[in-house]
């Protein structure tokens, strides 16, 4: 086939490029008279490198946004906009007029937005490679620039002066002003604030840099750091910092619509679809938990009225409605929730107490909706008080205290640090709701009597019984599943050794090993392939089967969300095995020390969950259990990273002289209490000591002993932590953890609690119940004495 002449190929190529040139116009400076028109395809001016573009972006099925975006990335992320509150229709135009005005008008010619240059003499407009759009004079003096008028995002090389602010958009796809703002105040303090939406004024701060009098300018430098600079040019406070410079990464920091300030990076070497969050040696998002930090008497909090906020696995807030409530607008979850039932009548002539029931939600609260408060009451009293009060929409019960709350409920949050439970009042009989067990029994008795009478008086009932009996016989012989024997009085299954050998495929996949036992992964095939962890015990007490079963029964009766659940056991010949639920996220040891530093908030959740689990073992079990070996390897994490203490019953099953070391000690080196070395009876206080060590490890995100520490004073964690506490240098314990530094008051409190726990004298250590109360803020933490150092003697 003959090739086309060169001039014809050039002409065809020019024709192909013509449509594109009318949309993505040249990256050179735009002279007076230049314009862009909103049309079906995006219309824009690109920066010289093509990294950024300025022009029109269609928003969903609505109008057009005059914006700046990352043009080189697939996501086309918007970083600035002019008319978020007033989208324009197709055919609207932005023009740099002959007299130097830069104006956005709709198709009728109505002015929608206008840049306001400093002075006159605008000669051209330009989209720069920094992401800054400028109006400049002939001698390249910038008379107006988008960097001076940020919306919700800042970019590298951009600064914010006192009085400047970022305002979060209303929602993910709605660019009008939303509910939060990031402001460098005139006094030098940098704050995150709620806004008196829909007004533009601020409401109250929920995060602060605490730099009153010293902060002068927010700087986003090319190394990837965002920091607060003082008047003298010094770095006053680092806000975020990434491990990559702008040479290798595209970067942006944004106050997102959920009220969290996040720093994102995007590797220039790869092409991804979405921005990964910054991998940082310091904080990458502020605050660490938006659900808990908003503490204001007005407004709906992080999620809106009658809703509650909880952090997802991606650390983003989830806004949900409690049972009995539905979203006002499914497309705007932060708008709040409404009741889907009629509220309780206050007419005393027609009491409705029996028409409502209370639905429990653990670790949930709406802390600013109280109208009555009672101390020293039982949960049953609190329930009755709410049900009999027509104003009560929710009761909160925690630590013998009862709060009554009325709608609208505000600042809702669900978090392990909240504790207690919320009792949601719901009307019976709604199609979306179910009454609690047994509550409708009396009401249904008469109906059952009538139906029963009719059935018994007819032959239909006898025929029905015969059919039912025949069905049960067929089912019994043809469809029954193997049923494991169950220990009387408790739902523990007794497995044969062969069944567990088959479940583990011959004890093939080992999960962990210790001096007492080896743990294998197993699958109970008869239970829909239910995953389990099977612990094969060594050197067990060689007493009678009855005594072994009695001890297993005591362990099996434990029931707490922070304990691993025992499913069953094997007691066959010399074989002693325990079958536990499988924990998908492994041990705290691998979570804490096996990779990147975990989130500060999650670490504190784990600390509190461990304390609550130990408190249950010590004070709430029918038979008190001393764990004897609290350490990160024995703290497991389920699929939602909830703490599950394991091996809490092994001490009851071991031989009296079984040890982990050459001494007669139960436990693990570094975590054992000093009384183990003195041959004196041990109490639950040995677990308190071990918890104190664990708490320090969670705070500092390091092991209790590091032989290769950069400083000899830091080798032993307990000694170093106490020195830092006495010297007022607690920030050294978390020196590379900006997220933790922002929570310095909690660090001080938890370090003080840990010091109390590791006192050499067991009588000075608090009970785990008091530890929980101190961590929750119910009990004040007094100044601890010096713990005597004994680690060197180990």
Automatic annotation (TrEMBL):
The keyword Magnesium belongs to this UniProt entry's keyword annotation: no
Membrane topology: Single-pass type I membrane protein
Main localization (coarse): membrane
Protein name: Receptor-like serine/threonine-protein kinase
Catalysed reaction equations from the record: L-seryl-[protein] + ATP = O-phospho-L-seryl-[protein] + ADP + H(+); L-threonyl-[protein] + ATP = O-phospho-L-threonyl-[protein] + ADP + H(+)
Domain Bulb-type lectin: from-to ranges: 29-148
Segments forming domain Protein kinase: 505-778
Binding site for ATP: 535
The protein's Enzyme Commission number: 2.7.11.1
Membrane spanning stretches: 448-475
UniProt keyword annotations, A-Z: ATP-binding, Disulfide bond, EGF-like domain, Glycoprotein, Kinase, Lectin, Membrane, Nucleotide-binding, Receptor, Serine/threonine-protein kinase, Signal, Transferase, Transmembrane, Transmembrane helix
CDD domains the record matches: B_lectin
Extent of the signal sequence: 1-24
Coiled-coil annotated residue ranges, if any: none
Location(s) in or outside the cell: Membrane
Keyword Flavoprotein attributed: no
PANTHER family attached to this UniProt entry: G-TYPE LECTIN S-RECEPTOR-LIKE SERINE/THREONINE-PROTEIN KINASE SD2-5 (PTHR47976), G-TYPE LECTIN S-RECEPTOR-LIKE SERINE_THREONINE-PROTEIN KINASE LECRK1 (PTHR47976:SF108)
Xref: Pfam families: B_lectin, Pkinase
GO cellular component: membrane
GO molecular function: ATP binding; carbohydrate binding; protein serine/threonine kinase activity
Family of this protein: Belongs to the protein kinase superfamily. Ser/Thr protein kinase family.
């Amino acid at each position: 086939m003959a090739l086309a002449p060169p001039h014809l190929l050039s002409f065809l190529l020019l024709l192909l490029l013509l449509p594109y040139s009318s949309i993505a116009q040249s990256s050179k400076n735009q002279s007076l008279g230049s314009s862009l028109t909103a049309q079906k395809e995006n219309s824009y001016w690109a920066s010289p490198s093509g990294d950024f573009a300025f022009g029109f972006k269609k928003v969903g099925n609505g109008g057009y946004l005059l914006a700046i975006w990352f043009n080189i990335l697939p996501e086309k992320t918007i970083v600035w906009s002019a008319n978020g509150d007033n989208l324009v229709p197709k055919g609207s135009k932005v023009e740099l007029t002959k007299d130097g005005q830069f104006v956005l008008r709709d198709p009728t010619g109505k002015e929608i937005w206008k840049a306001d240059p400093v002075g006159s003499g605008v000669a051209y407009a330009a989209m720069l490679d920094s992401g800054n759009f400028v109006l400049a004079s002939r001698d390249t003096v910038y008379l107006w620039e988008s960097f001076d008028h940020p919306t919700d995002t800042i970019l590298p090389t951009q600064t914010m002066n006192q009085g400047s602010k970022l305002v979060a958009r209303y929602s993910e796809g709605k660019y009008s002003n939303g509910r939060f703002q990031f402001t460098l105040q005139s006094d030098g303090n940098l704050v995150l604030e709620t806004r008196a939406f829909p007004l533009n004024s601020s409401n109250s701060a929920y995060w602060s840099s605490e730099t009153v009098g010293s902060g002068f300018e927010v700087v986003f430098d090319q190394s990837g750091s965002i920091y607060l600079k003082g008047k003298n040019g010094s770095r006053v406070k680092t806000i975020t910092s990434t491990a990559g410079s702008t040479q290798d990464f595209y970067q942006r920091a944004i106050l997102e619509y959920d009220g969290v300030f996040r720093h994102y990076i995007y590797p220039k070497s790869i092409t991804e679809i979405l921005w990964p969050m910054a991998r940082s040696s310091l904080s990458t998002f502020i605050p660490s938990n938006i659900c808990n930090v908003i503490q204001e008497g007005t407004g709906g909090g992080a999620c809106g009225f009658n809703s509650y906020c909880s952090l997802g696995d991606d650390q983003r807030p989830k806004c949900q409605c409690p049972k009995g409530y539905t979203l006002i607008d499914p497309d705007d979850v932060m708008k709040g929730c409404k009741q889907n039932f009629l509220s309780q009548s206050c007419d005393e002539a027609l009491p409705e107490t029996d028409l409502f029931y209370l639905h429990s939600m653990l670790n949930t609260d709406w802390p600013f909706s109280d109208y009555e408060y009672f101390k020293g009451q039982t949960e049953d009293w609190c329930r009755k008080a709410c049900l009999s009060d027509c104003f009560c929409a929710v009761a909160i019960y925690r630590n013998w205290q009862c709060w009554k709350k009325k709608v609208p409920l505000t600042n809702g949050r669900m978090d392990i640090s909240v504790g207690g439970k919320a009792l949601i009042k719901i009307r019976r009989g709604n199609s979306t709701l179910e009454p609690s067990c047994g509550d409708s029994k009396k009401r249904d008795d008469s109906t059952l009597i009538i139906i029963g009478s009719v059935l018994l008086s007819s032959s239909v009932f006898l025929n029905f019984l015969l059919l039912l009996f025949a069905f049960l016989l067929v089912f019994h012989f043809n469809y029954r599943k193997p049923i494991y024997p169950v220990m009387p009085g408790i739902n523990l299954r007794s497995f044969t050794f062969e069944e567990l050998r088959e479940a583990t495929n011959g004890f093939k996949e080992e999960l962990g090993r210790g001096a007492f036992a080896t743990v294998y992964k197993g699958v109970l095939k008869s239970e829909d392939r239910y995953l389990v962890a099977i612990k094969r015990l060594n050197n067990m007490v060689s007493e009678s089967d009855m005594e072994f079963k009695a001890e297993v029964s005591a362990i099996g009766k434990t029931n707490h969300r922070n304990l691993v659940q025992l499913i069953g056991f094997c007691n066959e010949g010399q074989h002693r095995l325990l079958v536990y639920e499988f924990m998908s996220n492994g041990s705290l040891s691998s979570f804490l020390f096996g990779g990147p530093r975990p989130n500060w908030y999650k670490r504190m959740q784990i600390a509190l969950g461990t304390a609550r689990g130990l408190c249950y073992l010590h004070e709430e079990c029918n038979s008190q259990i001393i764990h004897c070996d609290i350490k990160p390897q024995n703290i497991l994490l389920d699929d939602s990273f909830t703490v599950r203490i394991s091996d809490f019953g092994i001490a009851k099953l071991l031989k009296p002289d079984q040890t982990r070391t050459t001494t007669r000690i139960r436990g693990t080196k570094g975590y054992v209490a000093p009384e183990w070395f003195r041959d004196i009876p041990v109490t639950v206080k040995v677990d308190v000591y071990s918890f104190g060590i664990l708490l320090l490890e969670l705070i500092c995100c390091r092991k209790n002993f590091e032989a290769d520490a950069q400083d000899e004073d830091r080798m032993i964690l307990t000694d170093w932590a106490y020195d830092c506490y006495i010297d007022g240098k607690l920030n050294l314990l978390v020196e590379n953890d900006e997220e933790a530094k922002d929570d310095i008051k909690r660090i001080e409190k938890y370090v003080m609690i840990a010091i109390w726990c590791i006192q050499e004298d067991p009588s000075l250590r608090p009970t785990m119940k008091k530890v929980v109360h101190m961590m929750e803020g119910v009990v004040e933490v007094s100044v601890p004495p010096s713990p005597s150092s004994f680690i060197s003697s180990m």
